[in-house]
Amino acid sequence: MLEGSILQQLETAHRHSTRPIHFGVYYKNTLVALCHALEDHILTEDGEPLVITAFQMGKWYLQEANRYAEIAQRSREIAIMASADAGFAEHTTSQLPNVHLVPIEAGDPVEQEWHLIILSPKYTAMVICQELSEGDYGIGGLPASDLERKFYGLWTFEPELVRETAEIAIAHIEKYNPELANKLTAHKQAIQAAIISPKDLGVVVSRVVDYLQTGQENSIPVALDRNLVSNEIQAFLRMAQLMDLADINTPMAAAEVVAICETMGQLLDLPAWQIKRLRLAGLLHRIDPLQKAESVFTAGASTGYEEAPSCPLTCPLVPGAQVLRTMPRLRAIAQIITHQTEWWNGTGEPAGLAGDEIPLESRILALAADFQWRVCQQQYSEQSGQDIFAQALDYCRKQQSTRFDPKLVDTLTLLVMGLQQGLDLPLMTPKVSSSMWLLDSRWDSHSKSSQEINSYPK
Q1: Does the predicted TM-score (pTM) go above 0.85?
Q2: Which of 32, 94, 156, 251 has its CA 20 to 30 A from that of 422?
């Protein structure tokens, strides 16, 4: 990273923190899709955000200047950093009262950076990247296609990280324009972003995924396509992370559920591809739990997608799972999450499936999530001095053969015995910026028969 760049300052601030930042490499076409999605979201919501952006060179800003005239109408203030070239300051957008240009000097490290920082009362979002140097590209050298240019950095919706980056960017602007920096600071302080609701965040995530998928419709190299797909998964993972962080009692719920699911899968001797599906379903399982959904969609009728073998056409989907189905590689995960609220005796929702009709991963996820939640409840109860694992297990045992698969409760019992004897379940904090490792070609639920998906060693 370039010394003194905004990205480098952010990385330094978190280098030894308890929340280190995981950066990734993004192709230009991926960043274009991400930024256009976030910019267009400004045009559809009434939050009047503060927007700070860096375009590297004035010519890149000019390509988007007309769009920014529209964005300015829906924003309280926009600050644009770029090298002053190609009529940078003469465009009509640059003359708008709430659009402020910051012409950066040659040699300024921000000249190699690409930023979009959005602070809204309703949500926060940012893309912050730095272009790779010629040496970083290695033997192949600089790419021939502009869309194949690579940038190192991250994108996120996390409010505290976005606000922190905005402060660093404003401090950089202060070197050029102290008066503007003071104005931006005042706006930043005036925007007290509320806790992001799943509904509001879901709209942003859906738009990001739509734009990334549109990018895939064009004929592009495989490497660029994989970069787009990886970021689609990142959008959902970032959404799930924020929902966990908003839960002050169980901010690590997803990671803990994943650890339980994976260990149960190993005890059941499930194949690696099925454990991978469990891992991703565990990370995403809180996106939109059925008990909080006021309405459901009828699968097949409204999406046009085929159903998984164990999910009939009349099976309704919760809104969060419906969003997941827009991505072909996550349809199987959507099915797992949808059916985590089924009951073993057939009285659950949304489809009233019973016994082995319920996907195995859904049964495991339901039991693991309930056990994890009960352990957390016991930790905060007056009886926390007792064996919290035994108490949580006892609750689950009382529901075996009604809500939970009795054989899976037996498996959970073995796990609890291990925990009582000192077994340590390693919590995995996923590196969201490198999410392609979560993909597996066999995850499409249509590639396995329902009998194979729902079976486990007897």
Answers
A1: no
A2: 251
Sequence-distant (≥ 6) Cβ neighbours of residue 37 within 8 angstroms: 204, 207, 208, 210, 211, 212
Query: Left if phi > 0, otherwise alpha if psi is -120 to 50, otherwise beta: which for 366?
Result: alpha
Place of tokens 């995960």: 333
Q: What is the pLDDT of residues 80-116, one digit of tens each?
A: 999 988 788 899 999 999 999 999 998 999 999 999 9
Of 149, 108, 106, 120, which is closest to residue 52 (Cα–Cα)?
120
Q: How many Å apart are CA 288 and CA 205, to the nearest integer?
A: 13
The token duo for 353 is 């499936």
CA angle 284, 286, 292 (to 5 degrees): 145
| Residue 374 in tokens | 């009960």
Token pair for 412? 């959970």
- Write out the H or E segment, with its range, that includes residue 150: strand 150-156
Is residue 272 within 8 Å of 355, Cβ to Cβ?
no
* The two three-digit tokens of residue 223, written as one number: 């490497």
SS3 content of the chain, % helix, strand, coil (to 5): 55, 10, 35
- Residue type at position 14: H
